[in-house]
């Protein structure tokens, strides 16, 4: 195989914010610029670029995987043991748990391969190869109407991606995806191999793995043991296979060794993983839309949903288990969006962006770059056209689709236009969906949410987006011209009836219906009717505007990013926004001061875990055996000698975001020293604006992970599999 050469024109290292903490950047590992690499070396990296990412030989990148739908994991043994975060394994752990065998609550440690638990639906993906396909994509786009660029793009990218797969790759469950970089200035093909037999090997109890809960989420100081352990299985040829007891642990191409030598201030830290998304080139127009409309309304609606769910979760272990994963997902970004808004305002990101934009336009004028001179007024117009629709979009997605029933009903809407044959053909998928809904739904909280959210939509959304027929069914008293004066009671009665009568909550009746699926049953189903009424408005009045907005924003961003790169040629190097492709970030372990007079140390210890302990608390309880071992100070070889304690977590200056969760934190030799699991509250503006002073990545120290495996899980079998250094 030949080494793949990629045009370097858009990928440069970044040196503009060269303050002491200038560790911004989510770098494509196959395109680490020379300046960036020199920075990494200066901070402590001992590896060559080739050892991080090699097209031909095995390298670090072969041990960094996509875990599940949106996380990172790493391979740490030659039997393909995976380390990832507890919050990444959360859904899987909840799924294989029951009230009788509650692994989420009590933890789980397989002592041999045959005790490991297969998790249905859980997959991992290894990055096989990459290729620049910009020219191919542009050749296709040439024949496309510019106003339809974004609409046409998915099909174009997919066709090119599929055409690039080799026969061998097709046979071995490989998937190809072409991804836009710099908003359409570059297109790169990524080929992944997906493994479908993944098993749970170990997890601490939730009280440790999610210690501090939502109170501590997105915060430092932090005392969470946010890790869980899985394993990839393959057929006897090492290829992906559906679950089978015959499958064997995969023999991985690369295994990351584990260092228990520990960290201190200024230790080098490098992460590799799959950050999901950033908008670092966002304009002031986008910031304003986010802070004024998108974030506050999303947070407000999630507030309601979460409160009602939490009330029921507190009452019963079964409900808690049912809602755990869904709740955690909604809560995670509820707190994120709230914090993001606060930080965007605090750091005056809107004003900062405006200044940058002015500078850009001045540069364009001075240099007679006519194509850029009107760019900002074009952005302005693009946002102005879209703004009147944004609140209704948020209320549709976070309000109307913010109940479990409605969300599933929405997924069934396509059946209204499907043929009987098609429905029968896909019977299994629909049965699985209904099963999922009925297993996961908590009726009391879902109904409560449905009534409140319906009422709120009526009260707060412009009449042109309100499905009149729905509301006249609820009560004659709902005025269609003004504020909704009818009582919540009317909504509750309506919702009670709806939940009573929908076939979606009657799995047996639904099964029977599937034998001979008469469309009229769905057409007359109250849940389908309700969601469809809102969807009709969404798809006819809001979605077309949204598509127009996305298209103009994409094209304007393409221009803007191209222009910025041009403007900074020779001065500053750029990385593309995160888009769930593999990235490297580097930094060092570092304390910070969050506000006047306050100083945050760079490490948290076991002592601090015990300090936060609140017996019986929902978020800060601890298992008895944990307290015993901790109080005995039985630290073993995992002790931090200078502190005479276990370091549980630490912070680094690395640049990461959601999707990076579970990423390996590596020292200068490429040895595992921790797992990245969160960002700090003071830098929650990070998707749009990286704050060089405040930004920190929160990592669980690998010594705490091993200490728990050994002392709490008593799983020496796992420890023995690792390549431990130190
Ligand atoms: N904030 C973390 C992330 O997005 C997830 C932490 C999960 N814990 C929780 N308490 N919800 O990666």
Secondary structure tally, helices: 27
The bound ligands are:
arginine
The strand count comes to 20
Summing up helix and strand content along with how strands pair, one would put the structural category as alpha+beta
Q: Helix coverage percent of residues?
A: 40-55%
Radius of gyration: 26 Å
Average pLDDT number: 95
The total number of structural domains is 3
Fold topology:
Elements: H1 34-43, H2 49-52, E1 64-67, E2 71-75, E3 81-84, H3 86-95, H4 103-106, E4 108-109, E5 117-118, E6 124-132, H5 134-141, H6 149-164, H7 167-171, E7 174-181, E8 186-195, E9 197-203, H8 206-209, H9 213-216, E10 228-234, E11 248-249, E12 258-259, E13 268-273, H10 284-315, H11 317-346, H12 349-366, H13 370-373, H14 375-399, H15 404-412, H16 420-425, H17 427-440, H18 443-460, H19 468-474, H20 488-501, H21 507-515, H22 519-523, H23 526-567, E14 583-588, E15 603-605, H24 606-612, H25 624-631, E16 647-652, E17 664-666, E18 672-679, E19 697-701, H26 702-712, H27 716-721, E20 724-725
Parallel strand pairs: 12-20
Antiparallel strand pairs: 1-2, 1-6, 2-3, 3-10, 4-9, 5-9, 6-8, 7-8, 9-10, 10-11, 13-14, 13-17, 15-16, 16-19, 17-18, 18-19
Helix pairs in contact: 5-6, 10-11, 10-12, 10-14, 10-18, 14-18, 14-23, 15-17, 15-23, 17-21, 18-20
The structure holds arginine (ARG).
